[in-house]
């Protein structure tokens, strides 16, 4: 928790098992030059986040879409959960290469990023308000709200759009959930964790 003289206190909680989050405090005049802020991507709620800027980032990235969304080098503020939700909203495969997207697909991604994050912020805001009203210990409960999520952590449940069962890929400690029909032309990708166990 960070208590501020002016304005509300900041409470932060990390839900994932990896505990990689951190909080940094900088003087305002160092925001452009301070590590680790240098090298961060576009803020999706800023005027700089245009279809052209996203298209440029996609062309320059040459990686899979899921990795592109979570790396913070191209677009900031997207974690594992909302990367899955954004790709589902945009009907794009997490395994697709950034350089393979056509104009329409890139536009769908550009629309899905802020709109999905906005919905997520709303859910978390009402969840945090409810928690403080309930007087939860430390102000925040220890469980991430799953309400409002379409695919993330919903493996085996029906896709809210088409009813196909949501599939999951495990890769490098990261779980990726997607709808095989809406996002991958019906393909179910190999579960690398399971294939490793079978070997
Ligand atoms: Zn679907």
Explain what this protein looks like in three dimensions:
It contains six helices and two strands; from the N terminus they run ααααββαα. It has helices at residues 51-61, 65-70, 80-89, 103-134, 180-184, 192-198, and strands spanning 167-171, 174-178. Bound molecules: zinc ion (ZN). Residues 159, 161-162, 164, 179, 181-182 line the site of zinc ion.
What is the averaged pLDDT score? 87
The helix-strand sequence is HHHHEEHH
Roughly how many Å is the radius of gyration? 18 Å
Amount of beta strand: 5-15%
Computed structural class: mainly alpha
Low-confidence stretches: none
- State the distance separating the first and last CA atoms: 45 Å
Please list the strands of the largest sheet in the order they lie side by side.
1-2
Number of strands: 2
Number of distinct helices = 6
Shape call: globular
Query: What hetero molecules are bound to the protein chains?
Result: zinc ion
Largest sheet entry:
2 strands, antiparallel
Helix content: 25-40%
């Amino acid at each position: 928790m960070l208590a501020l003289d002016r304005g509300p206190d900041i409470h932060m909680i990390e839900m994932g098992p990896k505990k990689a989050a951190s909080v940094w405090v900088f003087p305002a005049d160092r925001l452009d030059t301070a590590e680790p802020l240098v090298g961060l991507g576009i803020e999706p709620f800023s005027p700089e986040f245009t279809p052209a800027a996203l298209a440029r980032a996609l062309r320059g990235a040459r990686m899979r879409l899921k990795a592109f969304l979570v790396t913070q080098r191209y677009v900031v503020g997207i974690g594992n959960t909302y990367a899955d939700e954004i790709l589902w909203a945009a009907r794009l495969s997490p395994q697709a290469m950034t350089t393979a997207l056509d104009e329409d697909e890139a536009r769908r991604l550009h629309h899905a990023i802020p709109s999905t994050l906005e919905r997520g912020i709303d859910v978390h805001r009402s969840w945090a308000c409810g928690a403080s009203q309930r007087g939860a210990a430390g102000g925040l409960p220890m469980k991430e709200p799953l309400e409002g999520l379409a695919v993330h952590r919903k493996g085996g449940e029906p896709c809210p759009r088409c009813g196909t069962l949501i599939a999951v890929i495990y890769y490098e400690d990261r779980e990726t959930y997607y709808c095989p029909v809406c996002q991958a032309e019906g393909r179910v990708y190999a579960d690398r964790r399971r294939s490793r166990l079978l070997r």
